[in-house]
Amino acid sequence: MRRALAHPAATWSAARTASPVKGSVVVKQIDLARIPFEYVGLTRPVTTGVIDASGTLTGTLAAPALKVRLQAKGVSREAVVDQVELSLALELLDRELQLTAGVELRGQRLVSAVGRSTIDVPRLVAGQWREAPVTLDVTVPGYDLARLRGMQPQLDALAGKLDAALRVTGSYRRPSAHATGAIKDLQLAAARFHHVSLKGDLEGTHVTAQIDAAQTTGGTLRADGTMPLDRAAPWRMALSATRLDLGFLAGALRDLRSVKGALDARVAIAGSRAAPTLEAHVQVRDGAFQLRIDPHPYDRIQLDASVHAGVLSLTTLKVASGKGTLSAKGQAQLRGLLPVQGDFNAETHHFALVLGSLAAWLDSDLRVRVTGTPRSSARGSTSRRGWCSCPRWPRRARSTRSAVPCTSSSWTSRRAARPARARRRRAARPGAWACTCISRGPSTCAARRRTPSSRGASS
């Protein structure tokens, strides 16, 4: 005993190495529909499904042996996905971790995955697991996309064959990944593609991706880019589309019944994620669309817009509805990818707005003015007015001698941080002191006494 107390680290190491562990657990026929996710504040992820699982643990604390099996059948979520079968096997033996998983969707294997890694339990407990090697292979072996018809309304005409592969190597701290994918004879709504291909790589601190698509009507789409994991590092993204039939959007977006039109576009994004720059030219000819909730058509759509040197120019926008038309044009100054200042003019002549049995006709001249700064770069130059919490206000202060800086960003954060209970308590006391941002430009907070008549007008 004295020797053990004199050398506790060595004693614990010997006990950990020699101490056996043993345990098991079995779960059968767990109905996911009866699990009360809502009672613990979670959104129900699935509607139906049954889970069977088992696990055994043997060996010692330093070198455990673990076996886990899990099967899920009949998993579905209403109007999203159905008939999902999941199988998973996890085994840890002699510090080697092996993973085998598979997913079937509507009676055909969708995904197969095999993974290996080295798990040293003492290093894992010490938080040094990130340097462990890892290998993962995921494949999609020729899935028939026509099986997804009827799962969602926009997938009623879906067809094509999907093949994909993903390989991950390296370590948990510095993984490398390579992904490829291809869809042959893809059909989305009224649009058909000869092929759609995807390539992606993760090497070091950069992610690269490339997409190529060719339609049977001659339209093409190509996109590629390089994105660093560091927000301040330079990135590059480019997209080009030539006579691209927009009919595929009705097969990708739930709210659209049908879409028509030809897209020609050139888009280039440079700079960094923290400070991006954009150059673009987009044209849409002979466009039309219908919403799924109403068959009323909006057609004869023409669009011509460009971005150059930080200026967004809307040269042409025309939309016809019934016997009426809508036309718009204008310019806006961009900061990054967001507009900060600009003017747009729109004219409507007997333009029909239809929703079910409700219909309205619009005749107007509209002018939209954009002012302000993006939220991510807001400073005191933005004018805002409202209540905010200023600390340590004197009860009888009648001047602004104790005013504190109150920029738009600090006003927003302070007001959001104030507890709701405190807001209600202050509202119940007309004589309480508060602070309001009242000046334009670099604003300051001035004290004034709220009264029942002024409180409603100021808030």
Key terms for this structure?
20-stranded antiparallel sheet; single chain; mainly beta; 23 strands
Short description:
The chain has six helices and 23 strands. The chain is mainly beta.
Instruction: Tell the overall outline.
Output: elongated
Count the strands? Answer: 23
Reading the helices and strands in chain order gives HHEEEEEEHEEEEEEEEEEEEEEEHHEEH
Number of helices: 6
Task: Give the radius of gyration.
Answer: 31 Å
Roughly what is the average pLDDT, rounded to an integer?
81
Largest sheet data: 20 strands, antiparallel
Task: Indicate the multimeric state.
Answer: single chain
Overview of the molecule:
By secondary structure, the protein is mainly beta. It has a domain of about 80 residues. It is about 10% helix and about 55% strand. It contains 6 helices and 23 strands. The protein has a 20-stranded antiparallel beta sheet, with no helix packed on it. Strands 21-22-23 form a 3-stranded antiparallel beta sheet. A hairpin with a 2-residue loop joins strand 9 and strand 10. The protein is elongated. It starts with a helix and ends with a helix. The C terminus is likely disordered.
Task: Note the topology.
Layout: H1 2-6, H2 8-18, E1 23-31, E2 48-59, E3 64-77, E4 81-93, E5 96-105, E6 108-118, H3 121-125, E7 134-144, E8 159-170, E9 175-188, E10 191-203, E11 206-215, E12 220-228, E13 236-245, E14 256-271, E15 276-291, E16 294-308, E17 311-321, E18 324-335, E19 338-355, E20 358-371, E21 387-388, H4 408-417, H5 420-427, E22 433-437, E23 445-449, H6 452-458
Antiparallel strand pairs: 1-2, 2-3, 3-4, 4-5, 5-6, 6-7, 7-8, 8-9, 9-10, 10-11, 11-12, 12-13, 13-14, 14-15, 15-16, 16-17, 17-18, 18-19, 19-20, 21-22, 22-23
